[in-house]
């Protein structure tokens, strides 16, 4: 049986496993019959069986497929190794999928698991598997004979002719043969590789094993097949001379035993509970012969006993087969792994492991030559000695290895020395009299060491063992000569310093104690009291030496409190240059310096030190916040107005030269390769870091003279042609290209020849096309970056400053085409307003925290994308009608994007009130059409459905955005009603209104805006509504209910309401209306203009309407005060198209005040509201 192909060997990594299919799993044949490579005589037979194997593999693994960009290509994960290494899914889901596959066909699933462990070892070779038993009919003697023959052939050999290494071993029930090319110098494999990607892989690898055991503990863990195979596989790999096999299998086995111990603990609890229930039930039914409940509990108890025996056998097999042979391995990482896990076993299951049989291994490894192993021993012992209930069982271990532990603060490795001191602190607290006075005296002296962390740990030991006084509060009383506890502490401290005779400076002692005894050392009142105390009374005063030391203590504590830095020799112990967040904040401090002081105060050496430190930080960090802070600091220091400009500019140029040199070297190696971009993760990481640093500086500094644009543009074009570039390179390359063009655009806008402008124009168009291409890239991050850059790019190009060079603006101006606008809108719909799957059920607390953090980050990205697109709408780069698709999600996504959508609506209304209103009604019309198409035409619209209710709620929210000032919004609201009425009666004119309009229910939607109409405008809208109503109504009144409700919303609080609608429900004729009718100028001329006679009669109606509106109320007085203006002009304008900025007029806005300017006359419709003059 052959392992499945390793499609993950091309992950963004170093060299990876290439495990390919050579034969077929036996599981492809029913009843587990064996199919061997030698049984396939012809290539046709081999191909046929291989296809069967592939089909089974795809079926068994389809549920856990994920995809990831890999060197520019999307790789579909099929095997366990690919899924775990990508880390895109929750580990529990991955394990559940595998368990399900195991239940369907355990041989196929186990082969996938075997491949997983082989591939995790970094094996670049072929795995061949065959069944140990050829037939189920073999007798016991034959099986035993075969097994002995196979055991004799368990070899690991090297074929000099082919240069291949062979390893053959048993992973019951298979015989595995691993073949791989020998590379003696290559000791690089996944679990030891550096970098965040491989650290995450190692964590995923360990998590997978733990979750696998956890999910199988109630089912297949005890089938006597799964664990036997895994243990035999790991044992076989651990015996290899290949370091990668030993290390990976040992790590897996140790994590496996840790997980099995957890299962053992759970079984112990369940068994105890079952035993208690059994005893309770037995006492309850005493006297009865049989009881079903009692029998059930008895069977359950026996089942737990049997499972515990099996678990113990697994534990013993792993410990004896793996730990005992590997804890002394020549590789220190393997030894450290073993010691770290045995420490966890002792803490987790002390009833079994907390005895000298297991503790001795930790004690022995305290003498290991490698600091990493010694450190793991100390950390494991800290976990044990920190628990008092465990210390009582450590007597023999403590007496045997105490001297070794006491000597370890002298270890040459600083971290080992620090952890040894902390362990001794725990032993001192929890073990009575374990440390002698001589031991303590030796440990006290470490407060004078130059390594500050060790000195601080020794300071804690000194303070808690010698100086601290439980319940020690000052007990000095007035007129008494008693000494308080703090005075005793001071005297003990002075006595210790004088007795040690190891140091002449108190400052080092104070610095060691400062973190633990800061409050005590700041009690200067107590110190001065003791210093000024005379010798009267009992004579407990300080001698000259003690007074001198006390004075030094006072001085040292004051200096430590004021300056806050350690004494000479310990100053370099605490650095922040490795903490990205802290460094980013610290780098902002120089931005507020008085930079002239560097020159006037002759502080050039400090400036050189600052520039040198920043340069080192840039070389060390790749975090974006740190790089941007460094770039900003250089920008502030490079101001041409200050005297230090030349020196800082020289340092900046030198830094950029070095960064560009690194990039050029990497690019030269890239272009020289015949097969395209190298898949080596190290080269990808280095190029990513170089481009990331340059992009951060290019944002604030003009790097045009380094010709960066051509280099990054060539990379992007390479990706467009071949599609094999890593995402880590594409993202910063896009950013660098964008910044390069921005600097060229800024320079061209000042003064450039026409030829230069035309060349730049071609580059601008080319970059726009590149961004459009990357909108459809396979990787989501690339798509989002391209969209954000494209939105900002279009905004800049369409709103250039024409004050300096109008010719440049004319040539470089660029507005998106209709197709591009559609692509941008489609991108927002696909990436922002898409519902995410809820997969947070069954997660642990840590997983839920990570899931929430991931969702928060995704929401932040979506908000950024939506804000970038909405800016295009607000600044008239794309048509305002595109906002209709955004507004549809206002209510549904209010918590996430409500503020962005609301601000967009407000800005567009300020730009063009009428067009903004038409966009709102267009949004509602589109939603209504979608709703109507989903309804059954025979039953009509369901006005109580959730969809219709949501539309009404959206209309209500739109209405609330108009605010309280009805005069400012009267034109917009009137336009909404006009467009809504026309839409509602579409489809009824063809039959002379004799049938019910299909969109009549839309009147209920626009009725939400009726309360925003002024009272005179309500009557005007009502009269406009009358034009579409035919009397008498052809249908029953119930079917016209939306019309009646809408009419009521327009005539609310009208005194004549009852007189207009009679008991028969008929509408009065249009000619009897008291309100002023609309004047319509339609292209089809279906409605005539108002005649002079009608105008005269309507003027009288206007006066009556004006008198009604002016009766009472402050708002009515305001309306009457503007009556003269309303008579002159108050049309609602409907521009034919959105006007976008040309030349200097970027955005045309309308005056929101009553004294508005004349509107553009090229509209479809003019609506003269009450008070407007009639045209002659």
UniProtKB/TrEMBL annotation:
It is found in: Nucleus; Chromosome; Chromosome, Centromere. The keyword Zinc-finger does not apply. Keywords: Cell cycle, Cell division, Chromosome, Chromosome partition, Nucleus. One of its GO terms (molecular function) is chromatin binding. It holds the Pfam family STAG. Residues 30-65, 1081-1176 are annotated as: Disordered. PROSITE patterns: SCD. Component of cohesin complex, a complex required for the cohesion of sister chromatids after DNA replication. The cohesin complex apparently forms a large proteinaceous ring within which sister chromatids can be trapped. At anaphase, the complex is cleaved and dissociates from chromatin, allowing sister chromatids to segregate. Belongs to the SCC3 family. This is Cohesin subunit SA.
């Amino acid at each position: 049986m052959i392992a499945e192909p390793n499609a993950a060997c091309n992950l963004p990594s170093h060299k990876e496993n290439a495990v390919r299919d050579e034969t077929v799993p036996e599981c492809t044949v029913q009843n587990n019959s064996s199919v061997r490579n030698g049984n396939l005589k012809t290539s046709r037979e081999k191909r046929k069986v291989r296809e069967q194997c592939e089909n089974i593999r795809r079926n068994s693994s389809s549920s856990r497929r994920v995809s990831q960009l890999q060197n520019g290509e999307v790789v579909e994960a099929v095997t366990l190794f690919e899924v775990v290494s990508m880390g895109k899914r929750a580990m529990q889901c991955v394990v559940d999928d595998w368990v399900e596959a195991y239940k369907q066909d355990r041989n196929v699933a186990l082969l996938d698991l075997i491949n997983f462990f082989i591939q995790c070892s970094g094996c670049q070779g072929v795995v061949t598997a065959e069944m140990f038993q050829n037939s189920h009919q073999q007798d016991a003697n034959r099986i035993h004979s075969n097994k002995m023959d196979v055991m004799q052939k368990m070899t690991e050999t090297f074929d000099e002719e082919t240069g291949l290494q062979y390893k053959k071993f048993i992973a019951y029930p298979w015989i595995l043969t691993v073949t791989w090319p020998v590379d003696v110098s290559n000791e690089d494999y996944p679990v030891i590789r550096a970098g965040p990607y491989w650290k995450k892989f190692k964590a995923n690898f360990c998590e997978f094993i733990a979750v696998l055991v956890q999910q199988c503990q109630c089912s297949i863990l005890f089938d006597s097949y799964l664990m036997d195979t895994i243990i035999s596989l790991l044992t076989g790999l651990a015996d290899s001379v290949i370091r990668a096999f030993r290390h990976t299998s040992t790590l897996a086995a140790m994590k496996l035993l840790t997980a099995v111990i957890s299962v053992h603990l759970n079984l112990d609890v369940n068994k105890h509970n079952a035993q208690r229930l059994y005893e309770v039930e037995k006492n309850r039914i005493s006297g009865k012969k049989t009881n079903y409940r009692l029998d059930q509990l008895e069977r359950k108890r026996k089942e737990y006993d049997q499972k515990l025996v099996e678990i113990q056998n697994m534990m013993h097999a792993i410990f004896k087969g793996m730990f005992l042979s590997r804890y002394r391995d020549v590789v220190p990482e393997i030894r450290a792994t073993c010691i770290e896990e045995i420490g966890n076993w002792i803490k987790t299951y002390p009833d079994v492991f907390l005895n000298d049989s297991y503790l001795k291994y930790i004690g022995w490894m305290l003498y290991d030559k490698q600091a990493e192993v010694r450190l793991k021993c100390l950390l494991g012992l800290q976990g044990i000695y920190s628990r008092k209930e465990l210390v009582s069982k450590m007597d023999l271990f403590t007496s045997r290895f105490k001297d070794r532990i006491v000597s370890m603060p002298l270890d040459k490795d600083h971290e080992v020395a620090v952890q040894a001191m902390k362990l001794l602190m725990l032993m001192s607290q929890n073990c009575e009299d374990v440390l002698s006075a001589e031991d303590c005296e030796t440990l006290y002296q470490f407060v004078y060491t130059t390594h500050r962390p060790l000195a601080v740990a020794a300071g804690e030991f000194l303070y808690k063992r010698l100086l601290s006084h439980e319940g020690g509060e000052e007990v000095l009383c007035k007129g008494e000569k008693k000494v308080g506890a703090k005075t005793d502490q001071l005297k003990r401290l002075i006595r210790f310093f004088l007795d040690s005779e190891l140091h002449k400076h108190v400052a080092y002692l104070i610095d060691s104690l400062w973190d633990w005894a800061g409050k005590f050392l700041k009690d200067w009142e107590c110190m001065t009291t003791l210093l000024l105390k005379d010798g009267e009374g009992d004579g407990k005063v300080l001698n000259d030496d003690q007074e001198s030391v006390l004075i030094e203590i006072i001085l040292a504590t004051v200096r430590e409190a004021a300056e806050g830095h350690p004494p000479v020799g310990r100053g370099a112990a605490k650095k922040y240059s490795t903490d990205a967040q802290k460094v980013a904040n610290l780098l902002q401090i120089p931005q507020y310096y008085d930079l002239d002081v560097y020159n006037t105060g002759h502080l050039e050496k400090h400036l050189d030190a600052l520039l040198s430190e920043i340069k080192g930080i840039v070389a060390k960090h790749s975090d974006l916040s740190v790089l941007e802070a460094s770039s900003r600091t250089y920008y502030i220091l490079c101001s041409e107005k200050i005297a230090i400009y030349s020196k800082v500019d020289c340092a900046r140029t030198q830094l950029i030269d070095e960064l560009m040199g690194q990039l050029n070297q990497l690019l030269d190696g890239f272009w020289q390769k015949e097969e395209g971009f190298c898949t080596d993760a190290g080269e990808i990481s280095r190029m990513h870091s170089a481009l990331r640093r340059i992009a951060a500086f290019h944002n604030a500094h003009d790097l045009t003279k380094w010709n960066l644009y051509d280099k990054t543009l060539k990379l992007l074009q390479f990706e467009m042609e071949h599609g094999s570039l890593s995402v880590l390179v594409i993202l910063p390359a896009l950013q660098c290209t964008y910044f390069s063009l921005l600097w060229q655009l800024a320079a061209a806008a000042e003064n450039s020849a026409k030829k230069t402008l035309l060349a730049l124009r071609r580059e601008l168009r080319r970059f726009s096309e590149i961004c459009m291409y990357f909108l459809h890239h396979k990787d989501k991050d690339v798509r989002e970056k391209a969209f954000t850059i494209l939105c900002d790019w279009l905004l800049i190009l369409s709103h250039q400053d024409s004050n300096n060079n109008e010719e440049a603006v004319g040539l470089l101006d660029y507005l998106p085409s209709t197709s591009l606008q559609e692509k941008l809108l489609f991108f927002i719909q696909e990436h922002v307003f898409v519902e995410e799957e809820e997969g947070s059920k069954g997660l642990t607390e840590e997983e839920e925290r990570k899931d929430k953090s991931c969702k928060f980050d995704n929401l932040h990205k979506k908000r950024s994308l939506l804000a970038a697109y909405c800016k295009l709408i607000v600044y008239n780069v794309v048509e305002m009608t595109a906002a209709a698709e955004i507004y549809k999600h206002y209510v549904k996504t209010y918590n996430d994007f409500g503020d962005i959508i609301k601000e967009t609506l407000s800005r567009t209304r300020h730009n063009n009130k009428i067009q903004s209103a038409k966009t709102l009604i267009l949004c509602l019309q589109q939603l209504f059409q979608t709703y109507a198409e989903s309804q059954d035409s025979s039953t009509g619209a369901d006005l109580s459905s959730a969809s219709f209710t949501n539309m009404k709620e959206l209309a209500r929210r739109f209405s609330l955005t108009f605010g309280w000032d009805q005069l400012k919004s009267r034109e917009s609201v009137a336009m909404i009603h006009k467009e809504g009425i026309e839409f509602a009666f579409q489809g009824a004119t063809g039959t002379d209104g004799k049938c019910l309009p299909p969109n009549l229910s839309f009147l209920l939607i626009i009725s939400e805006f009726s309360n925003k109409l002024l009272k005179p405008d309500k009557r005007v809208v009502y009269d406009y509504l009358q034009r579409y109503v035919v009397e008498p109504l052809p249908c029953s009144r119930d079917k016209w209910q939306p019309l009646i409700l809408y009419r009521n919303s327009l005539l609310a609080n009208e005194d004549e309401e009852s007189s207009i609608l009679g008991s028969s429900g008929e509408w009065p004729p249009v000619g009897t209306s008291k309100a002023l009718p609309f004047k319509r100028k339609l292209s089809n001329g279906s409605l005539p203009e108002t005649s002079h006679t009608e105008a005269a009669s309507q003027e009288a109606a206007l006066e009556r309407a004006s008198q009604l509106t002016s009766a009472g109320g402050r708002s009515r007085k305001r309306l009457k005060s503007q009556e003269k203006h309303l008579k002159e002009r108050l049309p609602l304008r409907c521009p034919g198209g959105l006007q976008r900025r040309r030349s200097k007029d970027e955005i045309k806005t309308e005056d929101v005040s009553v004294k508005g300017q004349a509107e553009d006359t090229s509209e479809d419709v003019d609506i003269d509201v009450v008070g407007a003059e009639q045209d002659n």
